[in-house]
Design goal:
The protein has 129 residues and is mainly alpha-helical. 83% of the residues lie in helices and 0% in strands.
């Protein structure tokens, strides 16, 4: 199996795990989760966005994140035409994570976004599922 396929499957597993974690842990304490996220954010506009948009709608936002992450996992595990759009969407999701996280999360999510976009780019050039 090519390294690219393994990397894609690892990312799919990451989203599946994230969806499960969000569904079984974060959903129960969603408001607290987003309040802590706001406190840890190092960009003031991100902190304000989290406090004003995510905290008041924390349950709904968490449900949407669960659906989004599960959809990405399913699309990536499909190994079909949906993999590339899922990788691009995951890259954008990672950029949002980079902008709303603390300094360490910013670096981690930025690297993850680059990996997503690199894999999506390779998939487009090779035209191989």
């Amino acid at each position: 199996m090519k390294r690219r396929n393994i990397a894609e499957l690892v990312i799919g597993a990451l989203y599946a795990t994230g969806a499960l974690f969000q569904a079984f842990d974060t959903l129960r304490r969603s408001e607290e989760f987003y309040r802590v996220m706001a406190e840890q954010s190092w960009l003031r506009p991100a902190e304000l966005f989290i406090e004003r948009a995510l905290v008041p709608n924390s349950f709904a936002v968490t449900v949407l994140v669960v659906i989004f992450q599960a959809s990405l996992a399913i699309a990536i595990f499909s190994r079909g035409a949906a993999v590339r759009p899922a990788l691009v969407a995951g890259g954008v999701f990672s950029i949002v994570g980079a902008l709303t996280g603390g300094p360490a999360e910013t670096v981690g999510y930025a690297v993850l976004a680059l990996i997503h976009f690199r894999l999506a780019s390779k998939r487009a050039r090779l035209s191989v599922p």
